[in-house]
Amino acid sequence: MQACESVLQFVVADGLLSATLLLGPRLPRRSFTQARNTAGITKQEGFRLPLIIVAFQLLERYFIALVTRLVLKQIMTVAAEMFSNWNDISSSGGSYYFVHEIGHNLQVGPATLLHGGETTNEVYLIYSGQEMFGKLRHGADRDVGKWQHTTYNGVGLGYYTYLHVLFGYGLIGNVFTSALRNSDVLHAEEVKAQYWLQQVCNETGYNLLPFHELWNFPVTEETRSICDPLPCFFPEDEFTAKAPDKVSKILTAYGKECIRHNPKQVVFRGDLWRGVDVRGPQFVFLHDDEEC
């Protein structure tokens, strides 16, 4: 016999939560009769059994709803604070949470390297934080943690911060733009990694392959043929000083002199302010001269 559905409903509603909780199915009457006879319960006592079960179900669901409401309210309070606390936003170099989420819609897939799905969406925070607030939110991070590895495992946000500080925002901007124009062939990780290396060498005018050995990038002969003729640049700073053995091994294997300081800056060939203060024909909101 199919269990019949309870007709009881419990509704919890406030500004954060509006939920309707249906009590679970009750046992068929035959099941209650069998259970009553087996336990030696009288008919009068057995009549109360379904009501007791329903009462416990109601209390259980009320407790769950109450806890859920309190948890959601706390989450919403914390979220509102994270997204709207101007003191935190201005002092830390931008709204990380807004940029992180909106950045997913602006993410350059063809230039997103291994495990970079939650990384390249935040690259825009590097430029906006420095230009608008004069501060890099993760300014001390250069992704040095990955230098301890012996295999390539992608790059973190600190890697892009490093490139930004060394060569200016034009490097990442130009390579992103180039990758978008060649998106039809940039699908496999192996292809994207080689394209990235070739482009950073071309854009900077330096052989950056030794530098990228810190992250254990795989390098093909084609990529070497493009980068090797260029003068080497390998930074000498407080960050590379944290991995002296690996740096020494890389430079010894390279066997030629590298420029260590004051690299040339890459000029961005695009327009970061394109479209700002310009209302196009597809503007979806009401215009000033239109009636509501």
From TrEMBL:
<dbReference type="InterPro" id="IPR042279">
    <property type="entry name" value="Pep_M60_3"/>
</dbReference>
<dbReference type="InterPro" id="IPR031161">
    <property type="entry name" value="Peptidase_M60_dom"/>
</dbReference>
<feature type="domain" description="Peptidase M60">
    <location>
        <begin position="87"/>
        <end position="215"/>
    </location>
</feature>
<dbReference type="Pfam" id="PF13402">
    <property type="entry name" value="Peptidase_M60"/>
</dbReference>
<protein>
    <recommendedName>
        <fullName>Peptidase M60 domain-containing protein</fullName>
    </recommendedName>
</protein>
